[in-house]
Amino acid sequence: MLHKNTYLNTIFSVAIAFLVGVVLILAIGQNPIEVYGELFKGAFKGSLNFGGTLEKFVPIFITAIAFYIASVVKLFNVGVEGQMYLGAVVSAWVGFSFVNLPGPLHMLLCFVCAIVVGGAWALISGILAVRLNVNEICTTILLNYVAILITSYLVNGPLSAKTGISTTPNVADSVILPWFMSPSRANTGLFIAIGIFVLFAWILSRTTFGYKLRSIGSNKEFSNYIGMKSDRLILTGMFLSGGIAAIAGAIQVLGVHHAFLNGFSSEIGFYGMLAALISKGNFKMLPVMSFLLALLRNGALNMQRFTGIEASLVDIIITVFILIASMDWILVLFRERKKVRVQ
After folding, report:
1. pTM of the model
2. Options 3.30.310, 1.20.58, 1.10.3470, 3.40.50; CATH of 31-308
3. Cys-Cys link to 83, which of 15, 49, 111, 245 (CB 3.0-4.6 A)?
4. How far apart are CA 196 and CA 206, in angstroms?
């Protein structure tokens, strides 16, 4: 029943957010049908537009999973953006450096190195939280800046391609993730994202390890009492979170840009965290929320191009949606109606 109400709450929240958008569009003298039509055309019409939506969906989806995994052990990994940057730059370095390796092994090495670096970076905040009781929200936010500045130094210094823009050399052809919806840049990273989702859905719901992670998040004291090594499990969860975020960065390099571009993200990690927070602990909602945000972001460009309305309107819709979804007002309404019926 809880998940059913969560779905209803989400549907109504989306509807109200779009209605608010209608009011704003009317207020500036535009036709809401035309504006929303261009928004959805930009997200779905043709392989270029729909492929662009899928391209944006993949990193949002993966970073949402990363944030969710940390939240399972009651840590808020606000540093997914920085971990994604580090994963991206490391995968780019491996991608253009180890060119003599066989293709599959080379690609695997790109992802493994990204996971190790991203996970290790997340562990810094995890260790500070577990050992010294330092608030992980503060440390992950601060480490975001450090990680991004490190990658900026590398791409403008030791790893620079020495071209007119801040980028590394292109990775080897053998590690490039193929595009499957030309002329868009939608690539097989989509299937990696789906695989990660299925894997962790199984781990969290069907394995002893997943049960332990959920138990630690639900009641750490009780878990310690029955013999679980809670600190080690918390750190494991944080490492997994950072590693998954790094995969998103690796896919951006290997599947989209084919090199590390300075400042490539466009707040991908931020939107991933939003998708996870809006899902309210419901793992199955992550792909839905991630796709919705990707749809709005990609469609906004087309809307701005053909109607003249600023893409910031979409940011307003997203903000209203988040505010309404966070209120749980639909759940409250159902409870109140139930009480009235009982009386």
Report:
1. 0.91
2. 1.10.3470
3. 245
4. 15
CA distance 261 to 284: 32
Angle, vertex CA 183, rays to CA 181 and CA 186, nearest 5: 40
Helices 208-218 and 189-206: angle between axes, nearest 10 degrees: 70
Residue 127 CB-density burial (10 A; 0-12 exposed, 13-18 middle, 19+ buried): middle
The three-point CA angle 52-180-55 to 5° equals: 25
Return the domain boundaries, the chain: 31-308
Say if CB 318 and CB 293 are below 8 A apart.
Answer: yes
176-224 tens-digit pLDDT: 999 999 899 999 999 999 999 999 999 999 999 999 999 988 888 878 7
Task: Write the pLDDT tens digit of every residue in 64-76.
Answer: 999 999 999 999 9
In sequence order, the β-bridge partners of residue 187 are: 179
Query: Do residues 278 and 325 lie in contact, with contact meaning Cβ atoms separated by under 8 Å?
Result: yes
